[in-house]
Amino acid sequence: MTTCTASPELIDDLVSANRILYNEAVVDGFGHVSVRHDRCDDRFLLAAGLAPAVVTADDILELDFEGNVHDAQGRRSYLERFIHSEIYKARPDVVAIVHSHSPAIIPFGVTRATLRPVCHMSGFLGFSTPVFDIRDSDGENNDMLVRSNALGKALADSLGNNDFALMRGHGSITVARSLKLVVARAIWAEMNAKLQTEAMRLAAAFGDGEVNYLTPGEAAGSMAINETVVDRPWQLWKEKAQRK
């Protein structure tokens, strides 16, 4: 298959994204982050099937929107690469994607609690976070993995035009218009889940059970300003990951 060489800067940022997400406890041995190719409109970049913390520039693969790897050189990609290929196919506005199993997020995909923004860093979550249930597309007996184009499309359909979606009993999907922003959103989503869980507990114990969530205007306003300053936390997270 033909290849199209991405810029070294983009590859370096994708390696950093993998390391940052691990260092900030969003991913562990599993999970992955991708970015659209900066020189070929029909391709994206994703690491080989490795733990994010050990990814290097030599491990970055080039894939098309059908999930085909174009420069494998004996390297295996992630089984769930179709998460990325189908979202890129469906959403021209999306430049980068994170799939993770961050632990504070999981309970919101298996209960009736709705993940909603409780702090100014997480306005992108919106107020009706979709939940993808793989049983709706693959039946009761499945391995919970989005391992085909059909399942990737079903997930993309569930995500719709949102920036974030839960995956029942599995994890979440975060999308954004830049690699740095998607990393920030994945980190802030996990932070928000922890804060919201604690706020709900306190509200139930000491109040009427109601949490004072961000209003739509507050969520939109804070989201807009946060997107303009994402370089600041990126540099911090990158420095921390490099030191570690």
Written description of the protein model:
This protein is an alpha+beta fold. It has one domain: Class II aldolase/adducin N-terminal domain (L-fuculose-1-phosphate Aldolase). The chain contains eight helices and seven strands. The radius of gyration is 18 Å and the shape is globular. It starts with 7 loop residues before the first helix and ends with a helix.
Largest sheet: 7 strands, mixed
Determine the CATH superfamily.
Class II aldolase/adducin N-terminal domain
Helix content: 40-55%
Proportion of strand residues: 5-15%
Arithmetic mean of pLDDT: 95
Low-confidence stretches: none
Question: Class in CATH?
Answer: Alpha Beta
Strand order of the largest sheet: 3-2-1-4-7-6-5
Radius of gyration (Å): 18 Å
Count every beta strand, where a strand is a DSSP E run of 2 or more residues: 7
Shape annotation = globular
CATH architecture: 3-Layer(aba) Sandwich
CATH topology: L-fuculose-1-phosphate Aldolase
H/I helix tally = 8
Write down the secondary-structure element order: HEEEHEHEHHEEHHH
Query: How many domains comprise the coordinates?
Result: 1
What structural category do the secondary elements indicate?
Answer: alpha+beta
Cα-to-Cα separation, first versus last residue: 37 Å
